[in-house]
Automatic annotation (TrEMBL):
Transmembrane segments: 12-33, 45-70, 82-100, 112-132, 139-156, 176-203, 331-350
Required co-factors: Zn(2+)
GO terms under biological process: proteolysis
Name of this protein: Site-2 protease family protein
Protein family (similarity comment): Belongs to the peptidase M50B family.
Lineage: Bacteria, Bacillati, Bacillota, Bacilli, Bacillales
Compartments (UniProt record): Membrane
Domain of life per record: Bacteria
Single Gene Ontology MF annotation: metal ion binding
Chain ranges of the Peptidase M50 domain: 59-135
GO CC annotation terms, alphabetical: membrane
Membrane-protein topology: Multi-pass membrane protein
UniProt organism field: Weizmannia acidilactici
Keyword flag Manganese: no
PANTHER family named in the record: MEMBRANE-ASSOCIATED ZINC METALLOPROTEASE M50B, STAGE IV SPORULATION PROTEIN FB
Amino acid sequence: MSRKNSKTKHAIFSLGSVGLLVLAKLKYVLAILKLMKLSSLFTLFLSLGVYAIVYGWKFAVALIYSMLLHESGHMIAAKKRGVKTSPIFFIPFVGAAVGIQEEIKHSKDESYIAYGGPLFGTAATVIALLLYLLTHGDVWLLAVYLGAVINLFNLIPFSPLDGGRIVTVISPKIWLIGLMLLLVYSFFAPNPVIVFILIIGAFEAFSQLRRPYAARLSQGFLHLLEKRKQALQSFQQTEDVYERNVLAYEDEQYGRRLKERVRFIRENEHLRKNYKKVRLALLEKRLEIYQFTSFQDPETGLEWLERNIKEEEKNALQMRQYFQTAAKEKILAGLAYLLLIVVLGILLYISRDILPDPHAFNAAGRAIF
């Protein structure tokens, strides 16, 4: 049998195996396609073409396969938690991502959504290994190697990487370990992507550090709303006309002084920045409350206050409870996280040391299989 015919049969057998796999998992494929849109498909094929030109078709298909399944895991996990996402978008030489389009309510949800990517990525890597053992197609061996590397890297416990978001359910303090790993890696293998991750991670860490401050500020706003509600209720209960007029006049004067105070702080450049920011936030909130709760129309003011008190109570409670997780849930999350690392480590070892060296493949990628 000629070498050309052997390659042709090999390719047909590989394609057949893929076809059977697709049919067996059709509902998952349809779910992924349903979540993707035309713009997402455009960036997918654009990245596929760019990678194929630079590194060859084998590498391009293996890489896109790994990234697509990884990001699909995030989308499906987000959908299960009722969190809206953007379609997957691919950026050549940067990677792929899914945008979260609404605020995540709890660290458990953040961890769950983050875990979905490496979980699907690991499953895709195992499937690629099985397909390689069936077909001996180089593309599947590359998919095993790239899938293991991509998902292991993403499990570094430093936000915005998946590992950093997974461990938020345990403690954001674990990010220090991930930061050390990234700094060591960037020292031995400088990479602009690592620098970008470190910059984004710094903003993420700052955001997490501000959560206690934001919670206190929310509590302060809630106190102002409740105090204003008591004032309006007291005004409503006052029956004496003279006393009502006095209260209305004093309230009007208070509003004028409040506006002057806000203007003074805004224009004063000599105040310390931190003091000015906090003080101005509280005064502006007071002014907003005053403007929507006039003594001239206490009924409308009380309705506005009731709505805002409920909303502020919800925000304050969410901020306080964001990291509150039972010990059992933390242990389970930690074990699941470590299990993925172990499985991916084994897959990486197999692809590099037991199977042929993935770096030895022809970069030109003359054939996909």
